[in-house]
Amino acid sequence: MTLSQTFFLSAGEVNAEGQLSLPLLTAKIIDIATAHANSLGIGNPAMADSGCGWVLSRLTIEMLDYPRVNDTYTLTTWIEDWNRHFSTRCFRIDDENGTPLGYARSIWMVMNTQTRDNAGLSHLHLPEEAVAPLPCPIPRQARHTTIPAELIDRGYTFRYTDIDFYRHVNTVRYVNLLLNCFTLDEMDTHSIRRLELSFLHEGHYGHTVEIRRRIVPTPEAEPIPAKDKDIAAAEKIKANEEKIKADAENGKDDAEKCKDNYSERNEFLIHDPDLDRDLLYARIILLSP
């Protein structure tokens, strides 16, 4: 059981390179996940009386190419897995011809908005047919690594517009913070191939955080296919899926897969020094043209 939505990409929604921006894609992913959960009767409106709501625990986005200004693209979501504590939800981004441009995988939990604890999923009733056995041919998130405290890129104080309905820092705001650690030249000369977000603790209004960054060079990878090479892009998606299966059979972990496939890995840790607490671990994989 899937849900698809089609969008037109206007000039006001693209980044400086004229492509679908990661903050907008992240927002669309959250929106369609919300809409799909509501349609299945397991969304936030169904939990309003119990004081619970869905929150994002992890998000991985991997793109071969991006929609460009004035393009039409389609986002499709489905539930990949479901257990007592977490739900795994996947996404596919297609161009106007139906060719996959990328995929995303997310892990969600239900939070008790009073205690801020994981409330579990046992109180929700998911139709058995809602879990869809569709392929999501991207590696799962790699293991976290330690980022030394001296590697501080800059600090930031959370403000009013950073806070969402749950009165904690919004996911899209974190993506903006991470992208603003790069220069315009870096973004003009590289493409973001993969984004990983892992939420560790909630961020709150008025707190000043450190953004620690470490750059790990990795072997050069092939360039992202141009937009007019739809067949090549589809073949690369298929080849990637076959490689993932082969690596899994050979016992190769996701961290090694990421290291092999990309040209530069940026690791981030957003840390609250007042509480001595890590809020977010992230990886952004850049691909050289």
Percentage of residues in DSSP E strands:
25-35%
- Flag low-confidence runs: 220-234, 247-260
Q: Write down the CATH topology.
A: Thiol Ester Dehydrase, Chain A
Look at the helices and sheets and give the structural class: alpha+beta
Helix content: 10-25%
For the record, what CATH class applies? Alpha Beta
Widest sheet, order of strands: 1-3-4-5-2-7-10-9-8-6
Describe this protein's structure:
With 289 residues, this protein is α+β, with helices and mostly antiparallel strands. It has helices at 22-39, 171-179, 184-189, 230-249, 254-261, and strands at 2-8, 52-63, 72-82, 87-94, 100-112, 152-157, 191-199, 208-217, 264-272, 277-287. Helix 1 runs antiparallel to helix 2 (171-179). The relative contact order is 0.16.
Compact summary:
With 289 residues, the chain is of the alpha+beta class. It contains 5 helices and 10 strands, in the order βαβββββααββααββ.
Which features would summarize this protein structure in a list?
289 residues, 5 helices, Thiol Ester Dehydrase, Chain A, alpha+beta, 10 strands
Give the SSE map.
Blueprint: E1 2-8, H1 22-39, E2 52-63, E3 72-82, E4 87-94, E5 100-112, E6 152-157, H2 171-179, H3 184-189, E7 191-199, E8 208-217, H4 230-249, H5 254-261, E9 264-272, E10 277-287
Antiparallel strand pairs: 1-3, 2-5, 2-7, 3-4, 4-5, 6-8, 7-10, 8-9, 9-10
Helix pairs in contact: 1-2
